[in-house]
Amino acid sequence: MTSTPALLLVEDDPELSGMLSGLFGDEGYLVDVARDGQRGLHLGLTKQYDVMVLDRGLPAVEGLDLLTRLRRSGVHTPVLILSALSNPADRVDGLDAGAEDYLGKPFDLDELLARLRALLRRSSDSSEVLAVLGGRLDVSTRSVQLTDGREVPLTDREAALLDVLARNPRRIFSRADLLDTVFDGSGEDNLVDTYVHYLRRKLGRRVVVTVRGLGYRSGRP
Ligand code: CA
């Protein structure tokens, strides 16, 4: 995490999103605002944030659906849901969809800010590292630290693919499995091959092993 944490706010209410983005800016966050779920999904997948604040009732892509899609694409940024749907069952749905925290509307501004600070503290404590052939994948920064000390930055999709393979080093994944897990089931099978190619170009041929007729697995670290 940098000293200026990047925050994505996905909130369609113009008054609330204006007020919150001003508040977050005053607190030292670098704020991007998305006013619908589609835009939120696009920003969440393409830019790197330290924390996200998500509304649930959103145009285009509903908040929990947005969250599920981010998590399936390997985006592990801490998420706080801010929603008028705030009975216990709603909160359970939100947390089960992958949110780290849930605050009902109306809410107290100081409590919201304190919860965001707590999320940032927790995520900077628990940066996750996975062994890959020739180095270590830092899940939070989406980069591979090679054994010779060099750091290789990955794109979100490259990191998500390597994450899935490295988390299950003994498992052979079919292209369809990977397409579903990493690419949300959209696209052609050769999308997986393309990203395997990108990973090999950055990290060496053996980082991903082709298992003929079956698919791919992680190179043995
Ligand atoms: Ca809303």
Indicate the topology.
Elements: E1 6-10, H1 14-26, E2 30-34, H2 37-46, E3 51-54, H3 63-72, E4 79-83, H4 88-96, E5 101-104, H5 109-125, E6 129-132, E7 135-138, E8 143-146, E9 151-153, H6 156-167, H7 175-182, H8 190-203, E10 208-211, E11 215-218
Parallel strand pairs: 1-2, 1-3, 3-4, 4-5
Antiparallel strand pairs: 6-7, 7-8, 8-9, 10-11
The structure holds calcium ion.
Residues 12-13, 55, 57-58 line the site of calcium ion.
Structure in a nutshell:
By secondary structure, the chain is α/β, with parallel strands linked by helices.
Description:
The protein is α/β, with parallel strands linked by helices and 221 residues long. Helix content is 42%, strand content 21%. The chain has a 5-stranded parallel sheet, with helices on both faces. A hairpin with a 2-residue loop joins strand 6 and strand 7. The mean pLDDT is 91. It binds calcium ion. The site of calcium ion has 5 residues, from loops.
